[in-house]
Amino acid sequence: xxSALDQVLRGESTNLATLRQGRxxxxxxxxxxxxxxxxxxxxxxxxxxxxxxxxxxxxxxFFASAVKVPLLFVxxxxxxxxxxxxxxxxxxxxxxxxxxxxxIVACLAVTLTVLASFAPIxxxxxASTTSYHFMVLLNVAxxxxxxxxxxxxxxxxxxxxxxxxxxxxxSRDSACCKSADAxxxx
Length: 186
Fold this sequence. Notes:
Elements: H1 2-10, H2 16-20, H3 28-52, H4 58-90, H5 97-117, H6 119-128, H7 132-161, H8 163-181
Helix pairs in contact: 3-4, 3-5, 3-6, 4-5, 5-7
């Protein structure tokens, strides 16, 4: 599981040679397990504020947050998969249905890896502040950062996969090289 996640984070699973063949080979089971476990960690970080503020439901809130986060991300796969597959087919992507599913799962694994890495920071602030509103804003900001990085992974991978983008990029790069090689007149 960790090696599969590491391959995604380091970009080894999105190398151009593999993507040009229309393949996106990441182990689906390992990344799904990573999503669940990282979601638990991120949820525990978010729920830690309740543990540091004793009340009648503090422990229940901690565990509820730990369950809600991975559930939210797994349901995100279920909801977004059909539309992303159709959109990719419309723009000319050669990825199979299984490869699209792997891409979505990899995107969510990136997002949850970033979000889970913020869990100690969230827990630190949960222990050191009494402001619930600050904790909400902190979690929203960190979720936005994690979402931005996950989405940029998805868009960068899809951009590499789109045939038109490769030909436009190649013609742009060759035009740029030609203009750089052109003699200058003064």
